[in-house]
Design brief:
Layout: H1 3-10, E1 24-30, E2 44-49, E3 52-56, H2 62-68, E4 76-80, H3 86-89, H4 92-101, E5 108-112, H5 115-127, E6 135-139, E7 147-150, E8 154-160, E9 168-174, E10 180-181, H6 183-188, H7 193-200, E11 205-206, E12 212-213, H8 215-218, E13 219-220, E14 227-231, E15 249-253, H9 261-267, H10 272-282, E16 287-290, H11 300-309, E17 313-315, E18 321-323
Parallel strand pairs: 3-4, 4-5, 5-6, 14-15, 15-16, 16-17
Antiparallel strand pairs: 1-2, 1-18, 2-3, 7-8, 8-9, 9-14, 10-13, 11-12
């Protein structure tokens, strides 16, 4: 029997290896604004991509929220601070101290306005004596859209925002993924282990008899790359629509309802409706509201106003985990 006929007799669609995508999760630790309330904590989020955890902002009480959400401190190696208002960074020195008390030795990297290093170093020297882990500060130019972090699976880009002081958002993008090798096909052709990586990269396979097996027969499509954008704090900034184009999820501050539009403009914040207009303009897949003013007992009004413009909107809440898939 020719090899192609034997292959068809052997191979069936259910021979695909069942795979699940690695996690890409947003853990909301805090989504309130400047004034503390019993309803919301100050800004902080954990972005979990595969086995990596990134912390965005570190408002007061962040480490308590990490405990409540059962997030392991030791997996946090990179912290991104959007700007130097207290509700986004007052929890940082406490977290650094706790890392030391836990015996951390792994390096910690902080990405922020260059003034943060100047402010933090005396505090670290005073409160964190004997700290056994290296601490690195990486300066961000909040006026530029650029890659500020990159590893083998993900990039993080800065997003210039419009606030009362230098402020930037962050865009997390997975890099393009490799195709999946179909296990039954690899076994059928006895593909050596050392060649399987190149096939995942797109190469064809040449059998010992000289037959060329096309890559499309040996692999299935790669999982789609996912993306998440964090924009807080900012006045409406439509020029960022291009940067945010088609991201899977956009977290956009929605400090005020439309009735407080003038107050939003004075303080360089956004209403929920304005956040929805940004989401619609950028063609994002889902909008996540947050950074609520303390004047609102519930998020109902904010959510209703946003949904009028962009129906696929949800409201952030402490403790929720959002899967991007």
């Amino acid at each position: 029997m020719p090899i192609t006929e034997r292959l068809l007799a052997f191979y069936r669609p259910n021979h695909y290896i069942c795979r699940t995508m690695e996690p890409f999760e947003i853990h909301i630790l805090g989504c309130g604004s400047a004034l503390p309330t019993t309803r919301h904590n100050a800004s902080a989020q954990i972005i979990k991509i595969g086995n990596k955890q990134f912390l965005i902002d570190c408002g007061e009480g962040t480490q308590v929220q990490l405990r409540k959400c059962h997030i392991h401190f030791s997996f946090i190696n990179h912290i991104f601070i959007s700007h130097l208002h207290g509700d986004h960074c007052f929890g940082l020195i406490g977290l650094l101290s706790t890392f030391g008390l836990l015996g951390r030795t792994a390096p910690l990297h902080i990405y922020a306005d260059p003034k943060l290093e100047e402010l933090m170093k005396p505090q670290v020297e005073f409160f964190c004596k004997g700290m056994n882990y290296p601490l690195f500060f990486h300066s961000i130019d909040a006026t530029k859209h650029q890659v500020i972090y990159e590893d083998n699976t993900v990039t993080v880009e800065s997003i210039p925002l419009k606030h009362r002081m230098p402020c930037c958002g962050f865009l997390f993008r997975e890099k393009p993924k490799k195709r999946h090798l179909i296990g039954d096909m690899a076994n059928f052709y006895n593909i050596p282990a050392y060649m399987r990586q190149s096939i995942k990269d797109g190469a064809d396979y040449t059998t010992p008899d000289g037959e060329i097996i096309p890559n499309s027969r040996l692999t299935k499509e790669a999982d789609p790359s996912r993306s998440y954008a964090y924009c807080s704090d900012t006045a409406p900034c439509l020029k960022n629509s291009g940067i945010l184009q088609c991201v899977d999820m956009l977290y956009h501050e929605s400090t005020f309802a439309e009735s407080e539009k003038e107050r939003a403009a004075q303080t360089f914040h956004s209403t929920a409706r304005q956040a929805a207009e940004i989401a619609k303009s950028a063609g994002v897949k889902k909008l996540l509201l947050g950074h609520y003013s303390s004047r609102y007992e519930t998020t109902d009004t904010l959510l209703e106003e946003a949904k009028e413009i962009f129906p696929n909107t949800i409201a952030a809440k402490e403790g929720i985990i959002i899967n991007i898939d």
